[in-house]
Amino acid sequence: MSPLRRLVVLRHAKAARPEDVPDHERPLAPRGLRDAPAAGRWLAQADCLPDLVLCSPARRARQTWELAAAQMGSAPPVRYDPRLYGADAEDILEVARVVPADVGTVLLVGHNPGLQDLILLLAGEALGGTLQRAQTKFPTSAVAVLTWRGTWSALAPGVALLTDLAVPRGEG
Question: In angstroms, rounded to a whole number, what is the distance separating the alpha carbons of residues 12 and 15?
Fold first, then answer.
């Protein structure tokens, strides 16, 4: 039987929109600074700790990952991949397809609409109302968990089960 794989998708936390700051360099807003650690706590509590993190190099995505990782104990290796910044679902899928074969769980930190479109592309089935919720909205700090049996290179539209969709929020 093929090994079970998990792709955990995390949209960056709420970003600020300061004037004269390029999009790539936008920092997290105060709400984002609260929500990113909550996402990390959710990942730890849901036993969704990754073996590898693929993260957009945009400042808001890097900050989201750093704040989430601080809630996990030991942080896994992270790759900041420029292909994830502004990527559409097909581009993100290509990044995921080259994950090393020995990796079981990948956390992907990036941006919408690409992440939401990726979830909808990959999810052939879903538990509960997760698919309908993903179709409606994938807000900042949202986490989706997709599972399937097979290899990363064979990841294709409709092969995954969407097992969870959460929107962790911090206090304050």
Answer: 8
pLDDT of 46: 95
Q: What is the distance between the alpha carbons of residues 54 and 72, in angstroms, rounded to a whole number?
A: 16
pTM over 0.90: yes
Residue 1 pLDDT > 90, yes or no? Answer: no
